[in-house]
TrEMBL record:
This is Unannotated protein. Coiled coil: none annotated. The lineage of its organism: unclassified sequences, metagenomes, ecological metagenomes. Gene3D superfamilies: Glutaredoxin (3.40.30.10), NADH-quinone oxidoreductase subunit E (1.10.10.1590). Transmembrane segments: none annotated. Its cofactor is [2Fe-2S] cluster. Belongs to the complex I 24 kDa subunit family. CDD domains: TRX_Fd_NuoE.
Amino acid sequence: MARLTAENTELALEIIARYPRPKSALIPLLHLAQEQDGHVTDAAMSQIAELVGVSAAEVLGTASFYEMFKFEPVGRYMVNICTNISCQLMGGEELLEHAESTLGIRPGQTTEDGLFTLEDVECIAACTEAPCLQVNYRYFHKISNPQFDQLVADLRSGARNDIPPHGTLAKVRQRIPADRRAGVVTPEDTAHPVWLASSQEAQS
C-alpha cells in the first residue's frame, strides 16, 4: 500500500504550514493522497496521521464521512449518474440502464480496461438540468443516450483532455505565497493574520 511519494510528502508539509493547526490540513492531505493513487490507501492515511499528529482512526473517520474519498482502486473516470427525483422523472434511471449496457458493468463496478467506474448516486444539485451526470465530479447536463455514448467514446480515445484522472481536483495546483497565508497562530490568538498585517503595513 502506497505512502505519499517524497515529492508529495514535501508538498504535504507545505500544505500543513498554511494552517494554524496541523489537523486543519487533514482534508487537503486526503485529496493529495487520492490524487497520487486514485484512491486513499491505508498507508497514506497512516502517514497523514503522523504528519498532523492524530490517530489513523481519526483520519479514517474523517475520510469515510465524505463520499468523494475512495478506499479501493477505481477507474480513471468515475461516472456518477443521478437517479434522484428530478433526474428520475426526466429519464435518469433509463440513462443509468443505458450506461450499464454501454460500459458492460453494473453500479459499483469498473470496466476491465480500468477506464470507467459506474455509480448510481443521489442528488448532485443540478435538478434543473436533469438528467445529469458527473465524470470525475465535472458536470454534464441534460444528457441523452447518444450524448452519453459520444462522451464515453471521446474519453476512450483521448479526444477530451478537460477531465483529469480521478482524484485530481484541478489541473493547475495553487501555490500560496508565504505572505498571503493565514499564519501559524492558534485560533485563540487575537493577532491579525500574516497577510492582513502585511497589507496594513504597506498602506501605512
